[in-house]
Write a structure and sequence with these properties.
CATH superfamily of the largest domain in chain A: NAD(P)-binding Rossmann-like Domain
Strand order of the largest sheet of chain A: 5-2-1-6-7-8-11-12
Order of helices and strands of chain A: EHEHEEEHEHEHEEEEHEHHHHHHHH
Distance between the termini of chain A: 47 Å
Protein name (chains A, B): 2-dehydropantoate 2-reductase
CATH architecture of the largest domain in chain A: 3-Layer(aba) Sandwich
Largest interface: A-B, 48 and 48 residues
InterPro entries (chains A, B): 6-PGluconate_DH-like_C_sf, 6PGD_dom2, ApbA, KPA_reductase, KPR-Related, KPR_N, NAD(P)-bd_dom_sf
Structural class of chain A: alpha/beta
Domain Ketopantoate reductase N-terminal (chains A, B): 6-162
Family (chains A, B): Belongs to the ketopantoate reductase family.
GO molecular function, one term (chains A, B): 2-dehydropantoate 2-reductase activity
Number of strands of chain A: 12
Oligomer: homodimer
Number of helices of chain A: 14
CATH class of the largest domain in chain A: Alpha Beta
Radius of gyration of chain A: 21 Å
Chain lengths: 353, 353
């Protein structure tokens, strides 16, 4: 039997190391889509500095492609589509639109190795019949201009996000197969089955919905934030709000994670990815990190005084980023009447943004 | 009897028009302290475009001075010290330190024509025995590089902020005198006695503690904010929190101001001053606009879920601005341990900031 074919979409810190893991085990044929930096990577490959894989120069997976469409034409069809891009449903292109050109046989297994909540259902709705798996990565890895800095070991939790009774046939076997082609024999990485991957997502949100969100607003690293505002004044109670929302869905997060996450960056002066994105003028993963949890809080009547203030503020930041990126151009004439109707006017005249 | 001498400290939009009002009536001898732009104003005066005073070129009051000390030496002592600077008690110099060089006879009347709450007591403590008056300006006026744009009529409410029983002798007469030298005969401006000027301050905070604060965080004009976030989602409930804090102090604000302020900028795409300051890298009037109200809310156990989230976020913005202005330089070695103690370490090693 021939090796399974894996398409990885997203060549940032997570995607590059996933490609490296899969290429290292060599139990699959790996195609990596490299969009903006295709020419750079095509010419000189990745330069990688990894805590587990060491120093690599001019490294490439089996194949790279400039677009999902090119990948499909040249190296498809694929058995697995591993999505490691940011998930910004309010951005110029949704994740469903991104993978569309790679859907060919109807048997592609879609793996969402992305942050945030509520990302699986839109994919299931767009591609019914496909097995959609949910992955949570705990890696520390950043990509800049061809260079991957990977100080935190690649650690993936993989599972079917649906309750057992609703899972498609073959789901368990596909998880098992993907784990077997991804896990390196010498434990350079770890990939394990997670039977409750939604809980894992909520637990990661305890960090992301608080530290990421605050950094996008104030553009400080976590240590500077923590020297200005007592952990108990803002960060800790906000984290407990995330736990309360999860609980309203029947998910009991490990509360010891609050202290763990509060102190995980002590002394490191680390800027969360959302803070970096906002600073660089990139759109932020607002709706999957904060918007979807807030909609659940509202549905279940959970009191979230801090997050309910952070969310509209972050919507304003996202608005500013979108406008600066030219996603819309405000005509002041459209906003001369009563400001109560501005959101309606905006939605009608400027589309989904 | 010779004319009273007035020293105006702060030559921004408010101070320049105050100087113009006083010089126009010509019932006092006016000295204006112009700090950073002294050479410019000394050479060519102010260029003023005013809704009531019209177009003026090369305009100057009776005297200008480069510093409070120079003003005192050359044109003092003064009967009135009118302070129109920003009030930033956590900045490099407090308002008490600013006016210190102008205190000579012990009879100077100090008038605080500034925004915010809790600004009078520090002045009374620094200069006991001096009459301290409190002024609220409703002017629309901005100063940039020698040019004053004054689209909103000069309207001042002036009063003694203390309860009647605690007022110093002569306070009422001084208010009356200042009004008489400030009010133009042809009603180009309006200055009136306000017997409850604290209420007026709280009412102005309904706007400033919300719109100013949000703009400093997200750097958008109010209309853009209002097209992204429903007025009822953030702005209106935040304004009601200000009203609730005032009420806990026995001050009943006019609640119709909420709607008035929400719609006062409809169609104008106006950026509040705090948003402009933050954008320009200037320190913001955080403690007088939001910090002091929050301390009252805490003392009186008022529930302020939105403002209690905004306040720490704004402290982070102020921190960022202070660091960028070189008010301190963080040594990362000081912040390597448990982040719970970072605020204490910061306070001890980096002083009051």
């Amino acid at each position: 039997m021939s090796k399974p074919k894996v398409l990885i979409i997203g060549s940032g810190g997570v995607g590059a190391i996933s490609a490296l893991s899969l290429t290292t085990t060599n139990k699959s044929e790996v195609t990596l889509v490299v969009r903006s930096d295709y020419d750079l990577i095509d010419k000189q490959g990745f330069s990688i500095n990894s805590c587990t894989y060491g120093e690599l120069k001019n490294w490439k997976p089996h194949h790279i492609a400039r677009s999902v469409k090119d990948a499909q034409t040249q190296y498809g069809p694929f058995d697995y589509i591993l999505l490691t891009t940011k998930n910004i449903p309010d951005g110029p292109i949704t994740c469903e639109e991104i993978i569309q050109p790679a859907i060919k046989t109807g048997n592609e297994v879609i793996i969402l190795l992305q942050n945030g909540l509520g990302i699986e259902n839109p994919m299931v709705e767009a591609f019914p019949g496909h097995i959609v798996l949910s992955g949570v990565s705990l890696i520390g890895s950043t990509y800049i201009d061809g260079h991957v800095r990977n100080p935190g070991r690649d650690h993936v939790f993989l599972g079917d996000f649906k309750p057992e009774s609703e899972r498609l046939p073959g789901s368990a076997e596909k998880i098992e197969e993907f784990i077997s082609i991804y896990q390196t024999p010498d434990n350079k990485n770890t990939i394990v089955l997670d039977t409750n991957v939604q809980k894992r997502r909520w637990e990661k949100l305890i960090y992301n919905s608080v530290f990421n969100v605050i950094s996008a607003l104030v553009e400080l690293d976590n240590c500077r934030t923590q020297m200005t505002v007592q952990n108990d004044e803002l960060i800790r109670p906000a984290m407990y709000e995330v736990i309360a929302i999860a609980k309203s869905e029947g998910i009991e997060c490990d509360e010891s994670l609050v202290d763990k996450y509060i102190h995980i960056g002590d002394g490191l002066f680390y800027v969360p990815s959302m803070g970096i994105d906002a600073h660089k003028g990139q759109l932020i993963e607002l709706e999957t990190i904060l918007g979807n949890p807030m909609r659940i809080a509202k549905k279940n009547n959970v009191s979230t005084p801090i997050l309910s203030t952070l969310y509209p503020l972050l919507k304003l930041v996202q608005f500013r980023l979108k406008e600066k990126r030219g996603m819309f151009t405000i005509d002041k004439n459209d906003f001369q009447g009563n400001s109560d109707v501005y959101p309606k006017v905006f939605a009608e005249k400027y589309g989904k943004h």
